[in-house]
Write a structure and sequence with these properties.
It is built from 31 helices and 25 strands. It is an alpha/beta fold. The longest helix is centred in the first third of the chain and has 24 residues. It holds the Pfam family Transket_pyr.
C-alpha cells in the first residue's frame, strides 16, 4: 500500500488510540486464518515486520510498537470505516470484552450479596450494536464455537453462558497467547458447561453428602466443640477428590496438600480417609501419652494412598500451625524433595494449597511463594491453589477491610496465573474449573488459582456468634439451603438421580460414621510411596557412628575441589582463592574455612549423598569465601567443581535464593521433612535476618518433632559475630534459639576452626539422627590467620563439643578459667598472649545445646582448684548465651566457686552503630574476662 494511501486509510480506520484491544483481536484472528479479516486489514498485517525473515509468527511487542507509531502519526481519531466491516470489528470487540470483563458479571456468589454494577462493555449498545443486528451473521474470529460465523444473538448468548455463568474466568492479564488460547478452547468450546455422565454426577453428590454429613454429625455429637466447619464450602470435598482422581489418571504418584483450619477435619476424613472413630476419640480428649506435646486436631497432618485409574496416589496433608499461610512454602519444599527423589520436573508430584480469602490477600508469605514458583531453586512444576472464599475472612464482612483489590486473588496476577472464580453452589461448574485448573498446571507447569466462592454457615468457630458482626449475611445464610440439598434437587429435577436414591446415600454415609468405618471408597493403606524414615528413628546424641576419613582421601578430594578447566577463565580474586586452595591440597598451606567447608561437601558427595544449599548469596558466599560456582569471565557460563568429583557422587546443587527468609526457610524445612538423606542447608545472608523467619523457627523447626513427630535434619548457617557493623549485621540472636531449646529438639553450635566446621557438617549426615542444626557461622574468622586447620585435624572425624586450652599453660598455675564461644575466643587468645598471662585458661564451648555436660566436666577435671570462672561473650548481657546457659556452667564448675559475666551491658539493640564505641566495648569485655583478681 503506498504511503499516502496507508495514511489516508489509517485516518479512517479503528487503528488509533483507544482501540488497541480489538486490533490485537483482529491480529489474533489473522494469525489463525488470514482470510478471516477484510482485505484492508490483511494488507496491513501482511506489511508488518517479519522476525528473522520468518513468515509464521510475529513478535507481539513489535506489532504493538508498530501500531503505537502509526497511532502517533494519525492522532487519536476513532472513525468508523464503512458499513459491515465496521460492524464486524465491533463484534470482535464484544468478544474481547467478555474475555476481559465477563467475570465481573458472572454469577459466582451463592448468597447473591455482591453488589456489582453491570459492565457496559458487555452490552451490545456499547459496541454500536442493537437488536436489529441479532439475526445478522458475523465472523466470530478466534471465538471457539465450532463454526466460523454465528448470528449475533446466538453469539451474545454463548458469550454470556461462557463468561457470565457460574465460572468467572480471569486470564486475559496473561501475556502468553498460547495459554490464553488454551483456556479459551476449554471454556468456549463447551460454553463453560461441564460434560458429565450420571456416574460422575453421583460421585459429586456423594462428596457433598460426605462434607455435609460429617459436619452435622460432629455438631450433634460434640456440640460447641471447635471444628472450623466446612459448611457452605462443601464443594471442596468433591473438588479435591476430582483433582486427585484426574491427577492419578495422568500419571501423578503423589499429592501434597497444605491448608489451614477451615474444613481440615472434613478433608482428613472424607478425602484422605482418616478413620472417623479416631477423630471422635480426639474430640473426646483421648490421646497417646507416649507422644510429645501433641497439637490440636485441626492442625494435624495425615498420609494415605488413594486408588485412581492410573494406580495408587500417595496423599500427604502437611501439618500446619495457626500461622495460616506459612504452610504454603513448606508444601512446595516437600514437593521439590519428592520430585528430586523421583527425577521429575513436576508431573509425578502435585502440590495443592488451600487458602482463606482474607489470608491469601493479607499474608505476605503468599506473595513470596508465588514469586518462588518459577525460580530454579524452588520450582515444582506449578501448583493448584484453591481459595475457600467464605466472603467474610475471620470476622470482617467488608471486603475493603481485608484487601485493596477487587478480588482476594489479585496477588496471583503477579505470576500471570489464571484465576477461575466459581460458584460453590454449582458443583458441576466447580468440577469443570477443577479439571481446567489441573490440566493447565500439567500443560504449562505453572500456578493456577481456583477461587471457590462460598460462605461460612457458622461463625469463625462453632462457639462464635456471627450475627453480631454480619447480621444481613447470616440472615440470608439461615434461609439458604445446603449445597447438598441444592444439588440433590437439581439432579432429581433433571431425572439423573431420584430423591429416594439421594436419601439412601445420605443414610449410608451416616451408617459409616456410626460404625466408625472409613468413608472414602478410594482409600488404601500406604505402600512404598514415601521415603523410609525408619533408620533415623529412636537415636540419641551419643550413639556411635563412624565419621573418620583418611588424609589421602582428603588430599584427593582437595585436588578435585580446587580444580577447574583452563578454558574457564575466572575473576582474578576468585583465581587467587583457587590457587591458594591448590596449595592447601598440596600441604603447602593450612586449610582456611572456605576450603574445609568445601571439603565437607565433597566428602558427603563422595558417599553418594546429596547436598543442597540455598541462600541469598550462597553460590559465592556472602563474605566471598565459598565460590562453589565459578563464573566464566568471557561468556558468563558456570562451572561447579563439586558437581565434577566422580561419576558415582551424589547430586550437588547450590542456589542463590529469592530475597526472602521466611518462605525460603519454610521451603527448606519442607524439603528436609520429606528427604532425610544428604545435607540440606539454608544460609542467611546475615544471621540477623533470620528474625524475618522467626515463625518458621518457632512453629516448625523447634517444635515440629514435639507436636507432630516430624523429624527434620535441616542445617541453618547464620553468620554471627561483632565486627562493628551495627545492629543488623552483628547478631543472629543466639538467645532466641537457646530459649527454644528443650527436649533435645535441636543442636546449636558455634564452631571456631575449619576442622570443626568440616566435622560438624559431615556429622549431620553420617550420624543416624535427623534433628535441626543451628550454626552461628563466622564472618571475620573466614580469613583469620589463627582460624586454620590441617588435613590431619579434619581426618579425625570428631566434632569437639568442648575445646580446651591449646597453649602451653600448666593447669596448676591457672587461677581463672574463661568460657567462651565463637570469634571472641581469638581476641581473648591474642590478648592473653600479648599480656603473657599464664594463669588464665580459655575453654571453648562449641556446642551450646544439647549442652555438653560430660565433655565440659572432663575438661574441668584439671581445674578443680580454680575459684574464678567467667563466661565471656560479645553480645549484650540480656542477649547471647548468658541468660539461657549460665545454669549449665554453674552446674559444671566446682562447688564453692563462682561464675561471673564479661561482656557488653544489657541493651535494647543487639549492637552499637559506631565503630569507635564498638572497639571500646570489645576491648573492655576482653580485658574484663582476662583480669585476674
Amino acid at each position: 500500500m503506498p504511503e499516502g494511501v496507508m495514511k489516508a486509510w489509517l485516518e479512517s480506520s479503528h487503528l488509533s488510540g483507544n482501540n488497541s484491544a480489538y486490533i490485537e483481536e483482529l491480529y489474533e484472528s489473522y494469525l489463525d486464518n488470514a482470510h478471516s479479516v477484510s482485505d484492508e486489514w490483511r494488507e496491513v498485517f501482511d506489511s508488518l515486520p517479519k522476525v528473522d525473515g520468518s513468515s509464521v509468527e510475529y513478535r507481539h511487542s513489535e506489532i504493538r510498537e508498530e501500531f503505537k507509531e502509526l497511532a502517533k502519526q494519525v492522532g487519536r481519531q476513532v472513525i468508523v470505516s464503512g458499513g459491515s466491516d465496521a460492524k464486524q470489528v465491533k463484534v470482535l470487540q464484544l468478544i474481547n470484552a467478555f474475555r476481559f470483563r465477563g467475570h465481573q458479571n458472572a454469577n459466582i456468589d451463592p448468597l447473591g450479596l455482591w453488589q456489582r454494577d453491570q459492565v457496559r462493555d458487555l452490552q451490545l449498545s456499547h459496541h454500536d450494536l442493537s437488536d436489529n443486528d441479532l439475526n445478522t451473521e458475523f465472523n466470530v474470529g478466534s471465538f471457539v464455537a465450532g463454526q466460523e460465523t454465528m448470528k449475533l444473538g446466538d453469539l451474545h448468548k454463548a458469550l454470556k453462558n461462557t463468561y457470565c455463568g457460574s465460572i468467572g474466568a480471569e486470564y486475559m492479564h496473561m501475556t502468553s497467547t498460547e495459554e490464553k488460547r488454551w483456556i479459551q478452547q476449554r471454556l468456549e468450546s463447551i460454553q463453560s458447561k461441564a460434560q458429565l455422565d450420571t456416574a460422575q454426577k453421583e460421585e459429586i453428590l456423594k462428596g457433598l453428602i460426605a462434607a455435609d454429613g460429617l459436619e452435622k454429625y460432629l455438631g450433634a455429637k460434640f456440640p460447641g466443640a471447635k471444628r472450623f466447619s466446612l459448611e457452605g464450602g462443601d464443594a471442596l470435598v468433591p473438588m479435591l477428590k476430582e483433582l486427585i482422581m484426574r491427577a492419578g489418571s495422568h500419571g501423578t504418584k503423589e499429592v501434597v496438600i497444605g491448608m489451614a483450619h477451615r474444613g481440615r477435619l472434613n478433608v482428613l476424613v472424607n478425602v484422605l480417609g482418616k478413620n472417623p472413630s479416631v477423630l471422635f476419640d480426639e474430640f473426646a480428649g483421648k490421646h497417646d501419652e507416649s507422644l510429645g506435646s501433641g497439637d490440636v486436631k485441626y492442625h494435624m497432618g495425615y498420609s494415605s494412598d488413594y486408588v485412581t485409574e492410573g494406580g495408587n496416589v500417595h496423599l500427604a496433608l502437611a501439618f500446619n500451625p495457626s500461622h495460616l499461610e506459612i504452610v504454603n512454602p513448606v508444601v512446595m519444599g516437600s514437593v521439590r524433595a519428592r520430585l528430586d527423589r523421583r527425577g521429575s520436573s513436576g508431573d509425578l508430584v502435585l502440590p495443592i494449597t488451600i487458602h482463606g480469602d482474607s489470608a491469601i490477600a493479607g499474608q505476605g508469605v503468599v506473595q513470596e511463594t508465588f514469586n518462588m514458583s518459577q525460580a530454579r531453586a524452588f520450582g515444582v512444576g506449578g501448583s493448584v491453589r484453591i481459595v475457600v472464599n467464605n466472603q467474610v475472612g475471620f470476622t470482617t464482612s467488608n471486603a475493603s477491610d481485608t484487601r485493596s483489590g477487587e478480588y482476594c486473588t489479585e496477588i496471583a496476577k503477579m505470576v500471570q496465573a489464571p484465576i477461575l472464580h466459581v460458584n460453590s453452589d454449582d458443583p458441576e461448574a466447580v468440577i469443570l474449573a477443577t479439571q481446567i485448573a489441573l490440566d493447565f498446571r500439567n500443560t504449562f507447569k505453572r500456578d493456577v488459582v481456583i477461587d471457590l466462592v462460598c460462605y461460612r454457615r457458622h461463625g469463625h468457630n462453632e462457639a462464635d456468634e456471627p450475627n453480631a458482626t454480619q447480621p444481613l449475611m447470616y440472615q440470608k445464610i439461615k434461609k439458604h439451603p445446603t449445597p447438598r440439598q441444592i444439588y440433590a434437587d437439581k439432579l432429581a429435577a433433571e431425572g439423573s438421580i431420584a430423591a429416594a436414591k439421594a436419601k439412601e446415600l445420605v443414610d449410608y454415609y451416616r451408617k459409616l460414621l456410626d460404625e466408625g468405618q472409613c468413608t472414602v471408597e478410594q482409600w488404601r493403606p500406604m505402600s512404598e510411596h514415601s521415603v523410609d524414615w525408619t533408620p533415623f528413628i529412636g537415636h540419641e546424641w551419643d550413639d556411635k557412628y563412624d565419621n573418620n576419613i583418611s588424609v589421602d582421601a582428603l588430599k584427593t578430594l582437595a585436588e578435585k575441589v580446587s580444580s577447574y578447566p583452563e578454558s574457564h577463565p575466572v575473576q582474578s580474586r576468585v583465581k587467587k582463592i583457587y590457587d591458594d586452595r591448590k596449595k592447601m591440597a598440596a600441604g603447602e598451606r593450612p586449610l582456611d574455612w572456605g576450603m574445609a567447608e568445601t571439603l565437607a561437601y565433597a566428602a558427603i558427595l563422595e558417599r553418594g549423598e546429596r547436598v543442597r544449599i540455598t541462600g541469598q548469596d550462597s553460590g559465592r558466599g556472602t563474605f566471598f569465601h565459598r565460590h562453589a560456582v565459578l563464573h566464566n569471565q568471557d561468556d558468563a557460563s558456570t562451572y561447579m567443581p563439586l558437581q565434577n568429583l566422580s561419576d558415582k557422587q551424589g547430586p550437588f546443587e547450590v542456589h542463590d535464593s529469592v530475597l526472602s527468609e521466611v518462605s525460603v526457610l519454610a521451603f527448606e524445612y519442607g524439603y528436609t521433612t520429606a528427604e532425610p538423606n544428604g545435607l540440606t542447608i539454608w544460609e542467611a545472608q546475615f544471621g540477623d535476618f533470620a528474625n524475618c523467619a522467626q515463625v518458621v523457627f518457632d512453629q516448625f523447626i523447634s517444635s515440629g518433632e514435639q507436636k507432630w513427630g516430624r523429624l527434620c535434619g535441616l542445617t541453618m548457617l547464620l553468620p554471627h559475630g561483632y565486627e562493628g557493623q551495627g545492629p543488623e549485621h552483628s547478631s543472629a540472636r543466639l538467645e532466641r534459639f537457646l530459649q527454644l531449646c528443650a527436649d533435645h529438639n535441636m543442636q546449636v553450635c558455634i564452631p571456631s576452626t575449619p576442622a570443626q566446621v568440616f566435622n560438624m557438617l559431615r556429622r549431620q549426615v553420617v550420624r543416624p539422627m535427623r534433628r535441626p542444626l543451628i550454626v552461628m557461622s563466622p564472618k571475620s574468622l573466614l580469613r583469620h590467620p589463627l582460624a586454620v586447620s590441617s588435613l590431619e585435624e579434619l581426618s579425625v572425624g570428631e566434632y569437639k563439643n568442648v575445646i580446651g586450652e591449646i597453649d602451653d599453660i600448666n593447669p596448676k598455675d591457672v587461677e581463672r578459667v574463661v568460657f567462651c564461644s565463637g570469634k571472641v575466643y581469638y581476641e581473648l587468645l591474642e590478648q592473653r598472649r600479648k599480656n603473657e598471662q599464664k594463669n588464665v585458661a580459655i575453654v571453648r564451648v562449641e556446642q551450646l545445646y544439647p549442652f555438653p555436660e560430660k565433655e565440659l566436666a572432663a575438661e574441668l577435671e584439671q581445674y578443680q582448684h580454680v575459684k574464678q570462672f567467667v563466661w565471656c561473650q560479645e553480645e549484650p548481657q540480656n542477649q547471647g548465651a548468658w541468660y539461657c546457659s549460665q545454669h549449665h556452667f554453674r552446674a559444671a564448675i566446682p562447688q564453692g566457686t563462682y561464675l561471673t559475666y564479661a561482656g557488653r551491658p544489657a541493651s535494647a539493640a543487639p549492637a552499637v552503630g559506631y565503630m569507635s564505641v564498638h572497639v571500646k566495648q570489645q576491648k573492655a569485655l576482653v580485658d574484663d574476662a582476662l583480669n585476674v583478681e
